Amino acid sequence: MLEAERDAASAAIAAALDARLPIVAEQCWLVYLPMRGEVDLGDWVARRLAAGGSLALPCTDWERRELRPSRLNSVDDVVLGRHGVPEVRPDRRHELAVEQIDGVLVPGVAFDRRGYRLGYGGGFYDRLLPRLRPDCRVVGVAFAAQVVDELPAEAHDQRVAAVVTEQGWLEV
Q1: Residue 28 is part of which domain span?
Q2: Number of domains in the chain
Q3: Is the per-residue pLDDT at 159 higher than 90?
C-alpha cells in the first residue's frame, strides 16, 4: 500500500474501533503501536489516553518468551525495544496482571475468516491469549488486503473473536 492509502485505511480502522469500543475507564485494553507497515493506531491510542481510557502495551520478556502487559500513561513513554517493537520505557513500566486486561487489539501479517492469524513467527500472542480471562475480547487489526479465506493453523494457534479492517468488522 502507498503511505497515503495506509494512512487513510488506518484512520478508517480507528473510526471503526471508536464506533464499537466506547471508552470505559474501568476497562483496560492491551493495544499495540505499529511496526513494519502495520495498521497505525498511534493517533487512536493518543486520543483514547487523552479521553481517560485505560490502555496497556505488551512488553516482551525475551528470557521467558512472553508478552507482559504494562500500563501506558502517555505515548511519550514509548521507546523502540528489541527488533523495533514499540514498548513502554523500562523506567516507566507498571506491569499489569493478565487478569486486568479486558480486551486485546492484536496485529498480524494476515488473518483468516475463521479468526486465525499469521504473525511474525515468535508465537508471543499465541502464548499470551490463553492466559487471558475467558471474557476478554480479542480483536485482530488489519488492512482488508490482509484478510484471506483460510490460513494454515496448528493446535497451538490462537484465534481472535473478530477482525476490524477499513471495510468494517468481521465477526468470527
Answers
A1: 3-171
A2: 1
A3: yes
Cβ-defined contacts of 149-157 (< 8 Å, 24+): 149/112, 149/113, 150/112, 150/113, 150/114, 151/110, 151/111, 151/112, 151/116, 151/117, 151/118, 153/114, 153/116, 156/123, 156/126, 157/116, 157/117, 157/126
pLDDT at 151: 96
Query: What is d(CA 16, CA 34) in angstroms, rounded to the nearest whole number?
Result: 17
Average pLDDT over residues 15-41: 93
Question: Does residue 55 have a pLDDT over 90?
Answer: yes
Number of Cβ within a 10 Å radius of residue 8:
13
Task: Give all strands of the β-sheet with 28-30 in edge-to-edge order.
Answer: 66-72, 54-61, 28-30, 103-106, 137-141, 162-165, 168-171
Residue owning grid cell 480479542: 138
* pLDDT on residue 36: 83
The predicted model gives 163-167 an average pLDDT of 98
* Average pLDDT along the chain: 95
